[in-house]
Amino acid sequence: MKPELFARYALAHSRNSHPGAAPRGGALLAALLLGISACQGVGEEPGPEATGAVSAGVGLYSGIPQDGITLGDPSAPVTLVEFSDLRCSHCRDYALEVLPAILERHVRTGQVQLVFRNLAFLGPGSVQAARMAAAVGMQDRLWDFVDHLFRIQARERPAISDELLLRVASELPGVDAARAMAERDSAEVSRQLAEARAEAGRLQIRGVPSVFLSRRGEQLRRLRLTSMSPEPISRAIEQLLRAPHPPM
Fold first, then answer.
1. Strand 70-71's sheet: what is its strand order?
2. Which domain holds residue 129?
3. Which of 36, 84, 85, 182 to pair with 127, CA 20 to 30 A apart?
């Protein structure tokens, strides 16, 4: 998908639905959550600071298996796919306010595997950050990088720069920041970001953060965020775990 088309994806989530988006099984998850407003670019018009503990990220992902864009047990029965832009203030708030509870309740318990899909439509800084995150992901530390970058943004409101990205990577234990800087323009990074754009186009995503759930072998089901609370997502996961599987 051409980059200029992604400007339209910053529209409010009130236009985020499309025919046929409701999952099989009727009302299980359909219209579970209504849309929040579209994101803003961090460093341009920063939104309110997240109310969560900004410094609480140390060790948040320790002990959870990471493999590129995935986090959690690969045999987990449920997958949660998150589409985010690293300059989006709402995506930042989701990462700091919602995700920690999902990690403790559902990822560490082996119920859910997370997938991070990085979209870059808020300007050159989004592209810089997305490429660096993907390069760090080649060292299986993408989730730590995203979390640390968002926490720095919440505290300091810095503009995206090579210096900032190098700092974020350098502060993560076990990450070779120089290697990540060298690999951010690699074919593997380009492939990963192209796949995220293609999937976003297929799912008709028009705003971030966008969150989807699926059970193993089933199609993704869209959730619409109404607030930065983990409770609706947690309930949706539990409903999906309890629901009977459709007949083969």
1. 66-67, 70-71, 112-118, 78-84, 210-215, 221-223
2. 3-15+27-44+52-242
3. 36
pLDDT at 129: 97
Number of domains making up the chain? 1
Element (H or E) spanning 211, and its range? Answer: strand 210-215
In the chain, alpha helices (H): 89-93, 99-102, 124-137, 142-156, 162-170, 177-183, 187-202, 231-242
Q: What is the mean pLDDT of the chain?
A: 80
- Residue at 22 is within a domain: no
pLDDT score for 233: 94
Query: Strands (DSSP E) along 57-134, which ranges?
Result: 66-67, 70-71, 78-84, 112-118
Whether 90 is covered by a domain: the verdict is: yes
Q: Which two tokens stand for residue 54?
A: 């900004």
How buried is residue 142: exposed, middle or buried, by Cβ count under 10 Å (0-12/13-18/19+)? buried
189 found inside a domain? yes
pTM to 2 decimal places: 0.79
More confident residue, 27 or 135: 135
Taking residues 171-191, report their average pLDDT.
Answer: 96
DSSP string, 129-198: HHHHHHHHHTTT-HHHHHHHHHHHHHHH-PPP-HHHHHHHHHTSTT--HHHHHHHTTSHHHHHHHHHHHH
